Amino acid sequence: MRIALLPGDGIGPEVTAEAAAALRLAAELGGFPLELSEHPFGGAAIDARGTPLPAETLDACRAADAVLLGAVGGPAWDQAPARPEAGLLGLRAALGLYANLRPARLVPGLEALSPLRAELARGTDILVVRELTGGLYFGAREEGEAAASDLCAYSAAEVERVARIAFAAATRRRGRVTLVDKANVLATSRLWRRTVARVARDYPGVMLDHLYVDAAAMELVRRPASFDVILTENLFGDILSDELSAIIGSIGLLGSASLGDGGPGLFEPIHGSAPDIAGRGIANPAGAIASAAMLLETLGHPALARRLHAAIDAAVLAGCRTADLGGGATTAAMGAAIRAAFADATLEAAA
Prior knowledge:
Elements: E1 2-8, H1 12-30, E2 35-38, H2 43-49, H3 55-63, E3 66-71, H4 84-95, E4 99-105, H5 118-121, E5 125-131, E6 141-143, E7 148-150, H6 156-171, E8 176-181, H7 187-200, E9 207-212, H8 213-222, E10 229-232, H9 234-247, E11 255-259, E12 265-269, H10 286-298, H11 302-317, H12 331-343, H13 345-350
Parallel strand pairs: 1-2, 1-3, 3-12, 5-10, 8-9, 8-10
Antiparallel strand pairs: 4-5, 4-11, 6-7, 11-12
Helix pairs in contact: 1-10, 1-12, 6-7, 8-9, 10-11, 11-12
């Protein structure tokens, strides 16, 4: 298993180190060879190479089985000719990663971490499937002092391919897809509705319903446990998945996977680079480790993935929590606690 590590900026190197340690332990427990190679990316690559996505980094990612990313960005590069985030958009496009999967599950026993009342938050287990290479983030744009515009464009083919990933995921979960759009206003949303309705006919065991994005944002805080899979476009998915991170207690707990058709996937925590706490050793590595678990599942090790997810739950429930979870554990201490639970033979049977 060849993994390209892109630690990136801010807290990225700190949390990536813990995720890499978890992968090494997974290789030991699973008895498979593992090759980890580290490459500059984002702001760190701007400093070292003058570009956020050096050619050698892209070549290494293309040659890998998967890419594990820490975080990119920060105020240090606000005036750079190419911002660190441009490297991330370029990497997604170069690898053909069009579907972003962001699971958000409230760990039973951690309801007190949610800003919602326990009876509302309890049972929240949602997968957001976000289209990743279209919409406003990739459309033509014009910017002037008096006016600006951003083009939101989608093709039916772009919608269909990400919709099929969402419906396939729903067949393995609770059998429901909620399409989130703004079809009462946007032409692109009406294209999404027509296309997703056609795809739904190929999945008779999955129920499809629809919500406007403003209603969905409201319903996520009123009844989050009623959702299963949320399918949506790029901008809406970015916003709603961050809302979900607050509902389950901390953005530091959540990982993500960006997938395409057959090439290497990109796995990363959904949090940012958090430059205000970088270097202090207090960042939560759970999201990066959860991303490593998603990587293991995608590359054919589902039992190890379940066991690593369970290890994160076990460590947090045992009281090892970083500051974002109300505790005082260091990044290294939390990573070590998760690995200790991961290695526990009793956890293997439970997972």
